[in-house]
Amino acid sequence: MALMQGKKCLIMGVANHRSIAWGIARALHREGAELAFTYQNDRLKGNVEKLVAELEGHENMPLLPCDVTIEGQLEALFDELGKRWGKLDVLVHSMAYARTEDLTGRFIDITADGYKLAHEISAWSLIGAAKYAKPLMEAAGGGSIITMTYMASERVVERYNVMATAKAALECNVRYLAAELGPSNIRVNGISAGPIRTLAASAVKGLSDIRDLMEEKAPLRRNVTQDEVGDVGLFLASDLSRCVTGEIIHADNGFNIVGVTL
Ligand code: NAD
């Protein structure tokens, strides 16, 4: 039997065909999952619609709006999903945002507003989504929540600035949520992915330099692909990882273990 047969999975964070969320969605779909998608706004709705139309069985896949900064949208999303599905097995949270100036400027110049915005969208939204997903996952007898992070939370990566602090908060949220939701058999994990060319990543200047460095220095001497990260997402979504919670798994060809290499 396929790994995800009978599992209902909500994917948040598809913007286009390069999105990491799309890579995870494809892996889950390959293993028989039933999928629902969110889109951030009307501008991105068409993109998500077109992509979803490529999937077999797309006629039955709910496509729902959710901008996490708009009061009430998270709650409305899970209400609607509850009506349609009555339960939820997997939540993929793959969303982040920061103003350009808070990434490319000096760290010391980050404003309170920029800090709040980046943290609200990129870190708090996991807590908000988990709160409304919980009853639906309890109705399924448990569930798996997966979020996306980056190594800049652990080490200084130039030009990551405010997003690094948001990712540190997000990883902390993973641990606290895992502790609190564990008794309901809900697991919460993060994937710390190597750099992939996506819309969000284009806001971080110098991404191609970091990708060159990965090829040169990562133990596996290559960059990660959207499909590879998708498969790690599949592992965390499936029962294969049933004893794993509160973890941040590095999907980066080992780059994070490297100290000094000559
Ligand atoms: P992406 O641009 O394809 O996805 C980012 C998503 O965030 C988009 O779908 C966007 O609509 C959504 N989003 C932004 N603001 C939102 C809001 N207010 N409400 C709802 N959704 C909102 O880029 P991606 O690289 O696939 O990013 C997905 C996740 O992966 C992010 O958390 C990112 O930080 C993380 N990540 C990316 C890389 C990389 O190199 N691409 C590496 C590690 C981690």
Structure notes:
With 262 residues, the protein is α/β, with parallel strands linked by helices. It has a single domain (8-251), classed as 3-Layer(aba) Sandwich (Rossmann fold), CATH 3.40.50. Helix content is 42%, strand content 14%. It is built from 8 helices and 7 strands. It has helices at residues 20-30, 42-52, 73-85, 101-104, 112-139, 161-181, 207-217, 226-237; strands spanning 8-12, 34-39, 63-65, 90-93, 143-149, 186-193, 248-251. The chain has a 7-stranded parallel beta sheet with strand order 3-2-1-4-5-6-7, sandwiched between helices. Helix 2 (42-52) links the parallel strand 2 and strand 3 (63-65). The longest helix is centred in the middle third of the chain and has 28 residues, at 112-139. It is globular, with a radius of gyration of 18 Å. The relative contact order is 0.15. It binds nicotinamide-adenine-dinucleotide (NAD).
